[in-house]
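>> received
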Amino acid sequence: MSFLELYNTILNTSYESYNELPYKVKTIHFKKDDIISEYDKVEPFVYFINKGIVEMTIRSYVSEKIIDFFFVNEMFAGLTSFLTQTPSDVKVTALMDCELEMISYDALQNAYENSADANKFSRVLFEQAYVRKAQREKDFLSKTAEERYAEMFQTHSNYISNIPVNKIAKYLGIHPESLSRIRKKINS
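>> returned
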């Protein structure tokens, strides 16, 4: 799926060219370990993943914490920074070579002024981002690390092998040794 296909799916439209969209979409490539969005910088883009996996981290008083992973056909941004155009408290890093499509903040703001479709599309995406964040918070409060890993494995099994075990453990809030025990239990 491409960004154009996502746009058509959400809005039930049939645009055949990116030129028909209310904003310019640019394709960009990142190598594994490249920083896509940095701490303390204003997030200028929202991204769609054509290829690859990215991780979003936040600094804590002790270390970096992994907030989320984003996979093919998903959109992401340092959303608070993007929406408020203030310095970001998150960092986004490519976990493997990535091909992303991106839309600038200014292009999006201009589209909001001129396109009901752009407004509707963004509303749907921001609602989905809110639900995703709320669900993650609920999962952390109500599910065990084993349950959260099992769900992650079920929904993203084809990507899990591309994420280092220590990063998955950090995302789940457990030690790598605990994750090894969980994986052994699930795989037996």
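>> The longest helix spans residues 116-142.
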